[in-house]
Amino acid sequence: MHELAIAQAILDRAKAASERNGGGRVTKIGLRIGEISGVEPDALAFGIEALSKNTPFEGLALEIEQPRRKLRCAACAAEFEPEAFAYACPACQNLSSECIAGNELDVSFIELEDPPCA
Ligand SMILES: [Zn+2]
Q1: What pTM value is reported for the model?
Q2: Where are the alpha helices (DSSP H) in 32-76?
């Protein structure tokens, strides 16, 4: 399952962040999942929950942002959020554009508790 592999990669990054910071417990992970990233946020959240059971990650909070798809017109550089399957630039009707948002899949932050006192 696609989302499960991504969930594992995210937990690996959280684990690495925790180790770099003296082993503090990860309390929260912020994710940006664009609406056309091909990743289902609910499935990803479920995967993270399933994989973190009985690990130090159990009970961590997720904050998921879902940026809308945004295009930039190749002719006039107008930026717009296209409606469904209409890609024409609202300013000049040009049909050629590049995607500048909405396809991201990023970890935006990893929140850690202070490491336990030695
Ligand atoms: Zn345009």
Answers
A1: 0.83
A2: 41-52
Residues within 5 A (CB) of ion ligand 1: 73, 75-76, 78, 89, 91-92, 94
CA of 89 to the centre of ligand 1 (A): 5
CA 58 vs CA 17, 33, 51: distances in Å: 16, 22, 8
Give the pairing of strands 61-65 and 97-101: unpaired
3 state DSSP class of 59: coil
If 0-12 CB within 10 Å is exposed, 13-18 middle and 19+ buried, where does residue 103 land?
A: middle
Q: Is 33 exposed, middle or buried (0-12, 13-18, 19+ CB in 10 A)?
A: buried
**pLDDT digit string (tens) for the chain, length 118 residues:** 589 999 999 999 999 999 998 888 999 999 999 999 999 999 999 999 999 999 989 999 999 999 999 999 999 999 999 987 778 999 999 999 999 999 999 999 999 987 666 5
